Amino acid sequence: MPPLRVKSVPVPRERLASPHDAAEHTNVELPNIAHDDSFRDVIKKISSYITEIIYAPASFEQLRTTSAGDELHSLVEYLSLEVTNPAIVNALLALRWHYSAMSDGRGLSDARANACEIVAWRFLTRLSEREVVDFCLYEIPDPSDKDTTSVDEECAVESENDERTALLGMIVAPSEASHQPDHLSDIRRGSMRRSQLFESVSKLTMSRHATEVEEDDPTTPFIHLNALEIAAIADAKRFLSQHIVQNIITGIWNGEIIFWDRLSANSKKKPRFYNHSTADPFSRLRVPKYLKAYEVAFFCGFLLLYYSVLIEQNRYAITPVEVSLYVWFAAFVYDEVSEYIDAGSVFYAADVWNVFDMAMIAIGLVYFILRCVGLYRKDYVLVDIAFDILALEALFMVPRVFSILSLSPYWGTLIPCLKAMGTDFLKFMVLVVVLYLGFLTTFSLVGRETFSFPHMAMIVSKIFFGASFVGFDVMHQIDPVFGPPLMFLFVTLSSILLMGSLTGMLSNSFSRVITHAREEYLYIYSVYVLEASTSNRLTHFYPPFNLLALVIFRPLRLFASGDTLRHGRIVLLRATHAPIVALIQTYEWVASKVTGNNTDSLHGPQQDYLKRHVFPPSNRPHSRYRPQMPSPRLNSTEMVNHQKQRTLVEDDVSDAPTDVEARIADLSAKIDRLTALVVALQPTESIESVRT
């Protein structure tokens, strides 16, 4: 492996930046990243370079638009022209999370985290669309897998793990896994994911100067994670909100990019473009768009059964409709548990609608227990209480039916604002409760001969919610001496000071969040798409068909082999989901006839760009070329002609360009054409001199 060409001594944190420091850091040599360097080595080399060039605090916009980020341009150009390692984006996003999680009073860690995120998306803007897909969906391979001759074997998950490996599963020690049930170990893997990954990256960056070889590989928890999943874990919301990344997310949402192309026991997980002529039609069951459509239909049926049971309210026996509701509810619970195990707690908690699902499960379980106990004891008062508790289910079920609106930009942008305002409101209510309890205690003790404690609590509550006249009517009855001044003070604090402060605080909270609400919306949208599509489960049963798989195959796991179970699950899936697949195929056929399916909306026709294989540099004799990774990119002459102009206006703008940016882009395009014409008129020797 070639030596690491970076300075071995970082700048101490205590020393302030000076012009001499700037000149010293400008001469930092770029990291020598070979094509076959492991993910661990790539992280070490990039972290050493980022530590050297980012030596002073800087905001995200300063790094993006000012001279503070000049060294980042050099790194991006180097990665685009010289580096072919497929784990570049994965390493940058892992480092972004590492630096953002570090506590630094000066803000230096935040600057380094922003630098990693900027380099990650600027690197993607130098690539073709197919290359962007390859880099963003490249999964960290298992170092213990010796046979890495093909991309299939690098990205594949072992068939034994296809049915139970969590999306963000953590590698558990054999001693721990040997005596744990499968579902408990999966939940444990998901719940400890964030801390485990952070410890792994910390070991990598803190041990970059160590010469000894560690016994345990710190990159083990990153195995089988792609760059987009790491970005979601790292809260890299600016990266995920970029158009070039959202094109991939949208492609996965629409099923243009799939991870499973056929439903067979030997199929392997691998990102690929969907080809309707060769792919298995049952692979469309994993498309997030169709998953969401079926989810809405499932909740509509759930709501219909729910209304039927509540309208009938048979107190003396369980009706067939109520039995259907129990079956529907059991399928819903099992599907949520499977989703949690597949996605892990990190992804599962990122979706706000999963909170509604957990509340629905809790209410449903309480209703079922009280209903059964009431019927067994013939306690019909308890049965009525059970139906009243079931009525609370509508508070969460009705919004859950319309959760599909959150995937639209308008409604999806409002949800992060409401979450932030709700958080600030709960914090403010702590002060309100303290003042409320103080005045309630005083009024109750002063007027104890006239008003009881519950009556006084109701009066104080009415005053707090705006009925100030109630306080003025009873203040003399509370106490002739202390009642009026205390009531005037309480009305002033509650109606004027507290309510005015609350209104202003919520307004500021809304204004603060709405500026970044699009990033929050795209982050939630991206997490949902990744959660729905990148599961390592080969077979995914829609509810309520998942209960059939549970009842049939769970007992068979005690004595049947893994291959037999996988074949059986595939047969059952084909038999039960054939009507759903037929509807999907009909919809896609009609959509192709209506819209016209001449070109692929994601990667376009084949002649859009020329293919050029980038082989590893000749000075790396031991590097091994992987045919599918990466795809070709611009040659050196094109980069010389266009690179300087591209730095004037970056391609990393997430929203639509403004008028000034549009004019700059138009001027840059004209300069590109003029430069290309001048270079074309020059002799070859001049081009070679420019290239050097």
Automatic annotation (TrEMBL):
Residues 300-591 form the Calcium channel YVC1-like C-terminal transmembrane domain. Keywords: Membrane, Transmembrane, Transmembrane helix. It holds the Pfam family YVC1_C. The keyword Nuclease does not apply. The chain crosses the membrane at residues 290-309, 316-334, 346-370, 425-446, 453-474, 486-506. Residues 12-24 have a biased composition (Basic and acidic residues). Residues 1-24 are annotated as: Disordered. This is Calcium channel YVC1-like C-terminal transmembrane domain-containing protein.
